[in-house]
Amino acid sequence: MASAESSVERASESDLPRQSWWTRTRTSRTAYTYLFPALIVMAIITFYPIVYQFWMSLTDFGPSSINPNVANYKAPNYVGFENYRLILQDKLATVDADLNSFRFWRTLGFNIWWTFSNVIFHVSLGIVIAVMLNVEGLWFKKIYRAIYILPMVLPQLVIATIWRNMFDAKEGAVNLFLKIFLGPAIPEAGIDWLQRVEPVAFGLPLSYFAMLIANIWLGWPFMTIVATGALQSIPKELYEAASIDGATGWNKFWMITLPLLRPAMVPATILGIIQTFNLFHVIYFISGGGPLGQTEILVTQAYKLINGNSLFGIGAAFSVFIFIILGCISAITARISRVAESYDG
Amino acid sequence: MANSSITQSTSRKGLFARGRGAGRQLEWWQQLLLQVFCLVVAVSVLFPIMWIVTLSFKEAGSQRSSTLELIPKSISLSSYQAVIDQPLSKTAGDISFWKLMGNSFFLAAGVSFFSVMIGVAAAYAFSRLNFVGRKFLFLSIGFILLMPGIATLAPLFAMLAKIRTSLEVLRIIYFVLAGLIVTGLILMTISRIRSDDFRAGSIAVVFGGLAVAGLLLWGGLGIDIPKNAKPFDLGRSLYGVGLAMISGALPFAIWNLKGYLDTIPKELEEAAIIDGASPNQIFFRIILPLATPALAVTAFLGFMAGWTEFALTARFINKAENYTLAIALQTMTGQYTTVSWSNFAAMSIMISLPVSIVYLALQKYIVGGLTLGGVKG
Fold first, then answer.
1. From B144, which residue of chain A is nearest by alpha-carbon distance?
2. Burial (CB count <10 Å: 0-12, 13-18, 19+), residue B196
3. A290-338 per-position pLDDT tens digit
4. Which residue of B has its CA nearest to A131?
5. Chain A hits for B318, Cβ within 8 Å
6. CATH for B97-164+233-331?
7. B4: closest CA of chain A, how far (Å)
8. What angle do CA A219, B341, B335 make, to 5 degrees?
9. Residue B165 forms beta bridges with which residues?
10. Domain-by-domain residue ranges, chain B?
11. Which run of H or E residues covers position A272?
12. What are B233's strand-pairing partners?
């Protein structure tokens, strides 16, 4: 895919030194004919809403500002950057008392910590399991592979709701499981995984750890699949040569396996980072951002502003923040992996 | 380039690939340790699944058990029956299970069909044609792709909820779409007959297209407009949700399909160009037939996303008759609901089964595509 630009274009441009504008733009015109339907649709329902969103974020757009035909219609007023100020200074409670526990910087910090703590587990577990599965002579390999893909196959929403019920304080599967091993150490009413307010470690509530478990379960198979593909393309001769030179298994893992996995794992990790950063289903269905908004991430907070509180103006301003933050993250990751070159590939 | 050679091997071998050189023997203790490790992982993966399967086989409405059960003692399908009879609790609304399923299917199939159809043309342009603004447009699509759908929920809702019209408009749109498809088919048939190239494949396309057009006509006629009906609220209907979902599904389809099209070797087209083929002929005669598996996979991924879409649907839909499976499942979650856990378990299995089976069937192609997308973005 590198440098070989469309040969269609080469064929039409190499004929004569000077061509009329009409002839020269022929490929562009063909291209835009193919793009036309997609561009029209995206202009209306993808790009225009982004612009509209920015305008909304500068107004006090509320639930009654939507439909001009109803009796209690209230036209949105321009309020400048008031919404942004309210968000950054955590003053949303002045608009809606429900938003008492809203803390912008805590949400952002938690979101970043949530992303990295998850992705580290996904990648390391994914690689370890892939390497174990790739050991020659392992029995039942096919059965294990068939089982390990299951978390990817089930819809995320269903998985999240199942884990929500598993972490239930009363008769949730996790508590029942712990009871078998720890017996009386578990309180009679069960561990309240999702509602316990007091932080347990690192200043984070128990619900964070519950979701971490659920999301590790959900995320590592993808990394294992990517790593398995990469492992199988590492030539066996490298390991044989290393054995002759007296390398131990551990040496081989660090000096051959890991470096050769890197080209496949870096893009997969970046994909994982973006997906985990925006992982709506797991947070929204398992902890719901609770207790007291301590495990809220940016997307769930935005969703609550828009859906629960119908604060469209503030929700739009919050979404603009999400755009900026994700733009920064993707710029950083693009630099790391130098994806920019491969776009044009 | 190094990346893509590795991912290609992924797509070729897939997850079920046979380990190389199964001849080597492990020491018995190595084998034992590895087996223990793999078993622990397998058990942890199966734990939630077995729990939910066991729950779903209990009697409908039975109490939660106070001991852990991971293997069903007896199999009763009454929970499934109960969910099919009465998916929502009486207070949440009155809608049949088949209607829920129909709504989810309508959303998922419609969104994935339109985004793939429109997306494949755009993907061809991005992959094979050089034009002014190519890099800029493609990067902006990539940027949109990074954004969660929720980040444009507010403007989409505000925009779509403004649109209120009579239901007549909807019927006209259906008819126009059907007309466009029929016209396209007629043009295609004429040009094929002229160039003496009307083969079995073309007949299949004609019949497929006619079937879609027929469905649209039937759907348009099926919209019943009661006298003094309330105006049709786009933002409160499944069509509105579908439009909002296409705003995210279309960039995904373009990006994904472009990745696939890039892997189709250029030599075929170069040969065709020497024979005097135009870009249109290359697209219809070479690219589209070769990209059929990619189209199927992209359409399926779009379908899977639409099948369980929750956030947009929950914001847009306010009438029980338009609920989808995802909304119904949400009302069954958690400890304060009136729905029994065995019903919840049966519901989640019934939602998962159709898409999971197709996923497993297509898995070889999907895995290759996912990693390819990873390399690209």
1. A46
2. exposed
3. 788 888 999 999 998 888 888 888 999 999 999 999 889 888 887 777 6
4. B34
5. none
6. 1.10.3720.10
7. 8
8. 85
9. B232
10. 97-164+233-331, 167-230
11. helix A258-277
12. B164
